[in-house]
Design a protein that fits this description.
By secondary structure, this protein is an alpha/beta fold. It is built from 38 helices and 12 strands. Helix content is 63%, strand content 9%.
């Protein structure tokens, strides 16, 4: 009987965690994924568990057949849990109009969210809360050792939860959210059926009510120190779990799989701790006397696991971690020891509490009630108080102290030998004194920063904030001791930057629709980043209102680093209205309509972000558009495999019949959809941005110097995209894991990329596209065709993996001789307008640096001032990293300046010197062995390094 009930309680734990995973996902669709919404749903979940614990403690002993009650509870969990998965998103849509007036009043909206979440989760979570007390009462009839029974049930149920959280991730990918919910519900029904069968057996089903004291409140008072210990231990572990997860996200990609593995480590530790305690208490029923020592050990483990973590992370270097085995290598030494001791602690204090309360049911219910309330408060405190106020390092220290406080509380009431108490207390004090303060700043934060800062680059950290939703790190890259651009890291990932490439594709989300629809009045931006897209909006004078939606107030506040002058900060524009909210929830709740909606959320593989890439979300975007309005949306090809990219494209095109795909730069593409946009506008209207002194200057810096270049960004319209994704299912809410990188192959991804970068095919599609005929002025459509060849060069530049890669001199020569453009020349030669702007402001002593001289030479080449470029390139050759590039560009500049003889002489001397150094005679070196650069120079200018000077 004991083994059977433990087995079904294992299955019950698996089903509970599957349901919990699904409820939190569906609640995110209903109430948003903001930190407030997620925390309030968690509070509602914990509140229901606590209510179930309280009911079990107060009324459980009146039950004559606890196994039958358990069966009914499991059936209730299965039926209502399954219903919640389907109903939560529906409730979100139904309640949206009621919550709409409160969108900007969180002090009213959030309590309402909490109340609704609690009511919706009330039945299944209350039923979950009573299951452990009911089975504990049942098994006591077969095993009189209360501590052993409690630990065994607690351990097996939590071990089942481990399998549940891992299974949920797998099942959601294979059979979707609905299929996973049905599986979880079926598990509960099977458990209910088995328990119901047991309840009909006379020897197992019916138990007489336990006699309880007439004053249960007084019995609870007698065990108050154990209840307080249970409360505080729940508080510590859940607060620590919040801190652990935030801490690990500095090193681990925050995918759904990563979160599942981290949670599995914690649950496995608790489970094995409970089972170990059960075995221990069976052999030594008085083991609860050392509960104070266990609490002290938990505090020491908290300190020790943090102290050794730099050595744990060191073998991984600076690479981002996403492999499941690697995640476990980090998570187990950090989280398992304290989790294991917490499982032991819960069980042994339960055994001690039993001596003070009237029955097993009351003991289990009271203990789980205290522990659950503590856990709920610990989770909220960890996220809303400890992390933003103390930070991760001090939070570890504080929680360790709290564990020590629990030990001190219990030492006062435990019959522990004084010598043992003194020794454990001394060890704990030593651990506190030796806590590695400063390790976060001096060692750990440097790991994610080092991924984006090379050892020889002029970059430094200029801002760190451990906020409510993420750890934000700002990195400033300098040149000539002045800021060149900023990179914003959130946790482990560079989410946004103010460098030229990032600005180009992010501002394109505004420049493109402003050209095609210059009468845009009302705009919505979802996900702020470092403010690139918002700045493009505030620079556009025609916009009357700009709504900005972002989950993180800290992201917005830290943007002052990028825009130190208040007049430049987009958020200070009087047209801007900020909403700290989940983008999907905002769209679901607002009744506004917008002419332009644009967004560049985090990469879709991150947990929760997939909700901003599904077909249902794109439908929300469509529905919030005004007639003729436009959506521009990020497609990060670098973060996706082929099937994931196709799934997003299909979901987008299922909603927007006139969908199209455009180049941003490199792997950063732009999806465009409209709600019946008409055109074309006049050429004068289309080109008005290029006549605006503010916008035109930035567009020139971003390589959009002429209106004709905009059309050459075209990749394909709906007919082309349908051919791309024809074999791929759309990304939908029911199958969120279609976004995972595990789907697809690198070979197929390469084929997809080649299709997207085939500019000749794109040019042909542009000429025949009905969408382009509808939206583009006719003359500009024809004038754009030659610029597709330029786009080929930009594609190559955008996908370079190293700045040391040699530029194709033939492309550079084509740009210089067949166009008047300057920015693409700068890019292909490793410079850009931002660097050139700093050179223009540089003091004279700074200009002598070889690196500066190289960029100065590039400037003169881009301006077609070849004679002026010769000497700077000569000086740049003093730097080893620029020597070869600068020398070749000096030869090219000499030829373009008409100094062919000097160029020939230098080329011959250079090759002769190289051959002597290698011990090779000139006669042994053949022309076929010349690098492509010199072959092209011979063909174009007659420069042959093998010939005499």
């Amino acid at each position: 009987m004991t083994a059977a009930l433990c087995s079904i309680f294992f299955i019950s734990g698996a089903a509970a965690l599957m349901f919990e995973t699904l409820w939190f996902r569906q609640a995110g669709l209903a109430f948003g994924n903001s930190v407030w919404a997620s925390s309030l749903v968690l509070a509602g979940f914990m509140g229901g568990l606590a209510l179930g614990n309280a009911l079990a403690a107060r009324y459980g002993d009146r039950l004559r057949n606890p196994v039958r009650a358990y069966a009914l509870a499991e059936a209730a969990i299965g039926v209502t849990g399954l219903g919640l998965v389907y109903l939560l998103p529906v409730f979100g849509a139904v309640l949206a109009p009621w919550f709409r007036p409160l969108m900007d009043q969180p002090w009213i909206l959030n309590p309402l969210r909490l109340s609704v979440a609690f009511l919706l989760l009330l039945i299944p979570t209350t039923a979950m809360g009573i299951t452990l007390p009911l089975l504990t009462k049942t098994l006591i009839g077969y095993d009189p050792h209360f501590g052993a029974v409690l630990g065994r049930l607690y351990g097996w149920n939590t071990l089942g939860a481990v399998s549940g959280v891992v299974s949920a991730v797998y099942f959601i990918r294979v059979i979707g959210v609905d299929g996973t919910a049905i599986t979880a519900g079926a598990c509960n029904i099977v458990v209910a059926a088995v328990a119901g069968w047991f309840s009909t057996r006379p020897s197992h089903g019916t138990l007489m009510p336990s006699g309880k004291g007439d004053q249960p409140v007084l019995t609870w008072m007698r065990g108050r120190q154990w209840l307080m210990a249970g409360f505080l231990s729940g508080f510590c572990l859940l607060a620590l779990e919040v801190v652990w997860f935030r801490f690990l996200l500095l090193f681990v990609f925050g995918t759904m799989v990563a979160f599942a593995l981290m949670l599995a480590v914690v649950l496995a530790g608790i489970a094995l701790g409970g089972l170990s305690a059960a075995h221990w208490l069976r052999r030594r029923p008085t083991a609860s006397h050392v509960s104070a020592l266990i609490a002290m050990l938990a505090g020491l483990a908290c300190i020790g696991s943090y102290a050794v973590f730099p050595f744990v992370i060191h073998p991984f270097g600076t690479r981002g971690i996403e492999n499941p085995i690697d995640i476990l290598h980090l998570g187990v030494p950090l989280m398992f020891p304290v989790s294991f001791l917490s499982g032991i602690f819960f069980t042994v204090i339960g055994s001690a509490l039993r001596e003070h309360l009237a029955s097993e049911m009351e003991t289990t219910g009271a203990l789980t009630l205290a522990n659950t309330i503590g856990a709920a408060l610990g989770s909220l405190t960890g996220g809303f108080l400890l992390l933003p106020v103390l930070g991760m390092e001090k939070s570890f220290f504080f929680i360790a102290l709290l564990y020590g406080g629990i030990g001190g509380l219990l030492f006062l009431r435990s019959p522990v030998p004084r010598r043992m108490a003194s020794l454990s207390g001394a060890m704990f004090v030593a651990g506190v004194v030796l806590f590695p303060f400063g390790s976060m700043d001096t060692r750990l934060l440097k790991v994610p920063v080092a991924r984006y800062v090379h050892a020889n680059s002029a970059a430094r950290v200029v801002g760190v904030r451990e906020g409510l939703t993420e750890t934000i790190i700002y990195i400033e890259t300098q040149m000539l001791n002045k800021p060149l651009y900023y990179t914003m890291l959130t946790n482990d990932h560079a989410m946004a930057g103010s460098d030229l490439q990032a600005r180009r594709y992010m501002k394109l989300y505004v420049y493109w629709p402003m050209a095609v629809h210059p009468q845009l009045k009302h705009a919505l931006l979802i996900a702020y980043g470092v403010g690139n897209t918002a700045k493009a909006m505030t620079d556009s004078k025609s916009l009357e209102t700009i709504d900005v939606v972002d989950l993180s107030r800290d992201v917005l506040e830290m943007n002052r680093i990028v825009y130190p002058r208040p007049a430049d900060l987009p958020l200070n524009d009087p047209r801007v209205h900020v909403h700290i909210e989940d983008g999907r929830y905002f769209l679901q709740t607002t009744d506004q309509h917008f002419d332009l909606i644009t967004s560049e959320p985090p990469p879709p593989g991150y947990a929760g972000v997939v909700n901003l890439y599904t077909r249902e979300y794109f439908q929300l975007l469509h529905d919030r558009l005004a007639e003729g309005g436009m959506v521009t949306y990020w497609l990060p090809l670098h973060s996706l495999r082929d099937l994931s990219a196709k799934a997003i494209l299909r979901g987008f095109c299922d909603v927007f019949e006139d969908c199209s795909l455009w180049n941003g730069i490199g792997s950063n593409l732009m999806m465009v959809g409209t709600r019946g946009a008409r055109g074309p506008v006049t050429e004068e209207q289309f080109t008005q941005q290029w006549r605006d002194p503010v916008v035109a200057g930035e567009m020139t810096r971003l390589g959009l110097e002429r209106p004709e270049q905009l059309g050459a960004l075209f990749i394909g319209d709906a007919d082309y995209l349908k051919g791309i994704y024809r074999d791929a299912p759309p990304l939908v809410d029911n199958y969120p894991r279609r976004i995972e990188a595990i789907l697809g192959s690198q070979a197929e991804m390469d084929r997809l990329y080649r299709s997207f970068t085939d500019v000749a095919a794109a040019q042909s599609r542009f000429q025949t596209s009905p969408l382009m005929t509808r939206l583009w002025p006719e003359r500009l459509r024809e004038a754009s065709l030659p610029y597709f060849q330029l786009q080929r060069m930009i594609n190559i530049h955008g996908w370079r993996t190293t700045t040391a890669q040699q530029p194709d001199i033939e492309d550079i020569h084509t740009l210089l001789t067949q166009t008047t453009l300057t920015e693409p020349v700068l890019w292909l030669l490793g410079s850009d307008a931002d660097i050139q702007g700093l050179l223009a402001e540089a003091d004279q002593p700074d200009l002598v640096q070889p690196r500066v001289q190289y960029h100065l030479g590039v400037h003169y080449v881009a301006e077609r001032k070849y004679t002026e470029a010769i000497e700077p390139f000569h000086r740049a050759e003093a730097a080893p990293e620029y020597r070869e590039r600068a020398f070749r560009l000096r030869i090219y500049a000499l030829c373009m300046a008409g100094k062919i003889e000097l160029a020939q002489q230098l080329a011959h001397e250079s090759l002769s010197q190289f051959l002597r150094a290698k011990g090779v005679t000139a006669g042994a070196f053949h022309e076929a062995e010349l690098p492509p650069f010199w072959k092209w120079m011979k063909q174009t200018f007659g420069i042959n390094p093998l010939a005499g000077g």
